[in-house]
Write a structure and sequence with these properties.
Distance between the termini: 40 Å
Largest sheet: 4 strands, antiparallel
Helix content: 25-40%
Order of helices and strands: HEEHHHEHEEEHHEEHHHHH
Number of helices: 12
Low-confidence stretches: none
Shape: globular
Strand content: 15-25%
Structural class: alpha+beta
Amino acid sequence: MRDKLAKLAEPFGLITMGMVGMNAPAQHTLYLLGTGPTFWPIFTKSPEFHDSAPDPLDRWSMRVVPEIACQLPVAVHDIVYPFGGPPYAPFLQWATETGEAHYSAVGMLVHERAGLMISFRGGIIVKGAVDVSKPPSLVPCETSCTGQPCASACPVAALSATDGYDVTACHAYLDTAEGADCLRNGCRARRACPISQQFGRDPAQSAFHMKSFHP
């Protein structure tokens, strides 16, 4: 089933980022979808990107994810999104429950394929236990990352697994001339992750997210 979903998501530049068994109120399976390396040129051709209305990526997601869901050969129970709250769906919790994402050395989630370049666009909940969950992967920060470069990449030490995220320090740095690099190319800590570097995210996508975070 996951392979089928991956094929349906591919034309939209989305990838499957894990699955979770859900037992309440009935037995279902949740599949998480996120942006892949081919996402950006696909999204920039969309009407949502060009119509100058607010929240183009969220509106694109709300159009595309149901298109994917309706092609699945199983009954769909619900579609959920990481935006639109409060309340917000617990995507971070679900991500760790997939066994494919873990909390990193800087407190952000690190995914076994995307590294720190995680961008969830939705989740599809199908009826029944249609896939067997995979065993949890090893935490890459602890097993295969020498020196944990993300931990020292932020110029103002705004990210910490123990102290949390210093939003004020981050925003203040982005207002400086030196902060232009993060605004153009994305967060330095995310870029420092070796898995992120192999994922192939277009820097223009990171700049788009940074503009939404820090207009």
